[in-house]
Amino acid sequence: MKQAEKAKTFGALHQKGNPVVLYNVWDAGTAKAVTEAGAKALATGSWSVAAAQGYGDGEKIPMEALVATTRQITAANDLPLSVDFEGGYSTDPLGAAANVEQLIDAGAIGINFEDQVVGGDGLHPVEKQAARIRAIREMADRRGIPFFINARTDLFLREGDLSKHAGLVEEALERGKAYAAAGADGFFVPWLIDEALIEKICAASPLPVNIMMRPGAPDVKTLAKLGVARVSYGPGPYRAMMEKLKEAAAAVYGTL
Predict the structure, then answer these.
(1) Domain containing 52: what range?
(2) Is residue 140 within 8 Å of residue 104, measured between CB atoms?
(3) Residues 14, 223: contact at Cβ < 8 Å?
(4) pLDDT recorded at residue 10
């Protein structure tokens, strides 16, 4: 399947009420395992990719290493691959677009692209984030690829008090609408787990909504009923696998 066809296929999987489920991977081996388990598409998690290579999250892994991982996954697997690209490794619109183009060259057909200031405080102003999305969209269009830009807002992620999430919904929707106008294809609201708030955002968002699984989150069937179009697992799979590895290793060393 050609890259443009993969991108189109990936976009079509985002159906409100029938979400595409992405069990996030971090290298070619885990991509193969998840594919064999029945996945229809693949997505990396930034935290997992970085941790697997000894780095912290927050664009700590060199971009060259991230691009290399992307190329390794796409070379070994024919499913569509979306890459968690954090803040694009550049606050400049053209710089971010040039960096995303490297992922396209490596075979990716989509990204997660967040609006928090990586390594800083708060979120980028809506206009600035929209400008970065627009530059990525224009670059991908020139390449002839319906590249899937999953615009992520970190409003909920950065607010640890869940009781305050309801007060962030309107701002989140304003950001989502601005990102849609700039050319985004999806709207990612990680850390939101309240069913009523998820349903409200799904009803008002012009873009298909992505929810991340975490402790306390509704299950996939419930999320589907709420109108979610994409469910991802973030760093959960990596953490679970590392715990099993530690347990198995501890059982070995405990017998010595």
Answers:
(1) 3-254
(2) yes
(3) no
(4) 98
User: In the chain, how many domains are there?
Assistant: 1
Taking the C-alpha atoms of residue 34 and residue 28, their distance in angstroms, rounded to an integer, is 10
Q: What is the pLDDT of residues 11-28, one digit of tens each?
A: 999 999 999 999 999 999
Length of the chain: 256
Tokens encoding 225? 């009923």
Structure tokens at 180: 């849609």
Which residues are paired to 113 by β-bridges?
Answer: 151
SS (H, E, C) 141-208: HHHCCCCEEEEECCCCCCCCCHHHHHHHHHHHHHHHHHHHHHCCCEEECCCCCCHHHHHHHHHHCCCC
CB-based contacts of 222, cutoff 8 Å, min separation 6: 195
Task: Name residues of the chain where pLDDT drops below 50.
Answer: none
CATH number at residue 100: 3.20.20.60
CA distance 37 to 163: 37
